[in-house]
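Pilot study result, target chain (626 residues):
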Amino acid sequence: MDPIGGFRRYWRELRRRRVIRATVIYVLVANGIMAAIDQAANAFQWANDIWLPALVTLVVLVPVVLVVAWAIEITDEGAEVDHTPEGAPHLTLTHGVASVVALVLATVLFGWSARTIWSNPDLLRADWEGTVAPPSSVAVLDLDDNSPDGDLGWLASGLAEDLTHDLAVIRGLDVRSRTAVKAARNRGLSVEEVGEELNVGTIVEGSVTADEETVRVTIQLIDVASGTHLLSREVEARPDAPLDLQTQLSEVIVGELRDRLQLAIDQWEDRQQTTNTEAWILYAKGIEHEVLGDSLWGTNRDGTLIEWDQAIDYYAMARAEDPDWYCPMVREGWLTLRTSRMRNEPPGRPMKSDSAALFRLANESVEVSEWAADALEFRGALSHEWTEAYPSDGGLRDRAEEDLAAALSKNPELPRSLIHLGMLKKIEGDFETAVTFFERAERHDPFVQLPIEQYYELSQALVDLRKMDQARHWCDRGRVSFPNDPRFPMCSLFVGSLAPDPFSPAQAWATHDTIQELAPGSGGGNIVIWAEATVARLLTRWEMADSALSVLARLSPQLSERPVLTYTPASAYLAAGDTVKALDLLETYLNARPSRREYLPEDWLFEGIHDHPRFLEITESPEAET
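Predicted structure:
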């Protein structure tokens, strides 16, 4: 028996049947397919969705391709079954066993190699290690002037200057100087080399171009470690006012970059908490769906809920994959709370049926994380929101304060904890302390991720203190920073209805119309009702009580379905001189929001009836809800 001779005959037979050639071609084609999916994943969500099925399919097809290559011969006449030529030595049983073993090994090797090489970088972004710079370190490159005449260099350079400055003033970001960036670029370094040279985690680059009517700026945010695009956006503007064009474009671009950088930083920090790659992939996949749902909010309620539900499923799978990693638990909890609020009728407070699931997540995250600040913050905020929505005997509120205070003792810069503590103090009537908490939250939230709580709650607490100019400042700041959010014109209308120099009726109705245009389809009716009631209260200040009562009468059928909205109409009826109706609506409001009984005796909007017997009766402490 000649083993070497047998191997040579086997090798010649593999070559004759073109098995080796088929293997090489298949590997090259599979590599091309995965490379194409990888590139598409930077821009399209569907590419992320098909990544794993594509990889599994390519691995499963390996033995199929090899068997077909062995058995079928392609000739000029077409495909036919391949046979060993006459006179050639036949392969033995040993060769058959070797073929099966080789087939299994080839499949396993291909699968392992493919899984190692194509680890879905859009989800992993990078295998972040301690030596890799965090995404909070940023360099802004000069934008390219791609205009037909090359005459937009001033805008490209000016935008790079503005972006560098505007990002540098955001707390939490470490932005490299223009001098350092230019020195690196002048040496002819690539984008990745510039990132390594300046030790930054993310790079901003882009270009400007124009036609006769539009200036177009393209901006990319690049993750240095993986080379992938975290963000790619096109911003257009009309060049009618050249002096304002640069500022207008810069504000929009910075807003986009700020939001995406926050997400990248959150992911980077969370990535440090687990060594389980599969759990991280599932978690990152959930974030992608959550962000997509956020982008649909206000325009496509069903689409938002579909994406959020998928995100929650991925977070749950990540928890199952790594039960000791608390980040998916906390993220799933926050998103489940948001989803519960949106699904409720009317939207606003969480559904009571979700209580068990939410508190189970909150308690598990605290235990698994060994009382980490983020987990304590979520449980404290959940307890606070639940006692607001479904008042109890005070136990949940006490736990809310304990958890939030404990979270701040571990990390004094948690904006949600500061905001919820401020809201608790506001309910207690301690407005000065509430303002202090809200101001601290604003200082410690570098990316302004909680604008409604920061700006709106701060403005409302200042109204409680009758500091109208300061309250108006925060409303105006919210309107400038978030022009498409209806809550900020509502904030301005609310303050404008109470300030010593109130809105005119025309100004109030114009603001009301703006709110109506911006209000989202789902739940937007709540803020529009609130706006109309606020206009009614303002009309009484212009001695238009009859008009105010007419507006309130039109709102009456809707208020019967939404008792939590009766606070402002009650104040409007009181201002119009109808004390009985005001007290009726206040009683309805307090039945829906019993926790406000502590607050109303300090509320100056109702100070005219603070001594009224019925007011004293309805603001007494309620019986404990079981």
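One observation from the pilot: The two ends are 88 Å apart (CA to CA). A full batch analysis is planned for the follow-on phase.
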